[in-house]
Sequence to fold (305 residues):
Amino acid sequence: MKGLELSRKFYSEVGEGMLKEQFPELMPLLAVGLIGSGSECYGFDDEVSLDHDFEPAFCIFVPSSLDRKTIFSLERAYDKLPETFMGFSRQRVSPVGGRRHGVIITEDFFADKVIKGDGRLSLYDWLSVPEFSLYEAVNGEIFLDNLGEVSAIRERLSYYPEDIRLKKLAGRILLAAQAGQYNYGRSISRGDTGAAQLAAIEFAKNIMAAIFLINKTYMPYYKWSFRALRELPMLSDLGGSLEYLISSGNGEGESAKKAALIEDISKKIASALGEEGGFLEPIAYMINDKIGDNNLRNMHILCGV
Fold:
């Protein structure tokens, strides 16, 4: 069973009754769901995920105005919920530390993820928040939001403003061009296979980031990036090629294949951006020129990455 489904059932069959019976006066103030860190919040969990932080659990989001005594009572009631549910045991202490489930102050949760507890980011705030943290703020599912605060914040953070997306995309495309279309071949010609492999990895990493930006979808933490890539509507078919680039060697036959693959990938990226040919560097500057905000457009092209 997927963790998100388990969480939903645990709340509807156990948690909801507890809240309505013991805290009816708080119901208008609460939001309940499962969001944040962990593969289960993305729907990426599998059998391997069961070895840590997998449990019947949900988050109860409360406003910062709620007094500490009431929060403590709510925490105690949550902790007293059944220790097992549908064959799964609850974890009293997270192995990695911190409280990922149970009672969480809404403002604290979002401040931890995106700096601002209300999710109101300035244009330049968006440049300093890691992309995976933004994804953790909007992933998963909210089962109940009577106050509407959590849902409103998640809506504000649902995706980058267009100028920020363009700045990040321009930077990723430029880095991919430098690593793949320039440095990979030069490193091979010098016989420096270590540098060549690093160039291939940098190309693949930045192309993958660009693909998520083209799809207007946040890229998750790196270990789930290939998993998430397979579900994208555009350019998901490049996953196998990118995996080959970072996992193959750089001998004579392989390096020639990788060089050709880099050019093929570059052409497909250019096509997806509505550009002819496959030379990515000028495309990066063309993307940067489309940014509406003058100050952001004139900032260094790599400031978004």
User: Anything to note?
Assistant: The longest strand covers residues 141-145. Residues 162-190 form the longest helix (29 residues).
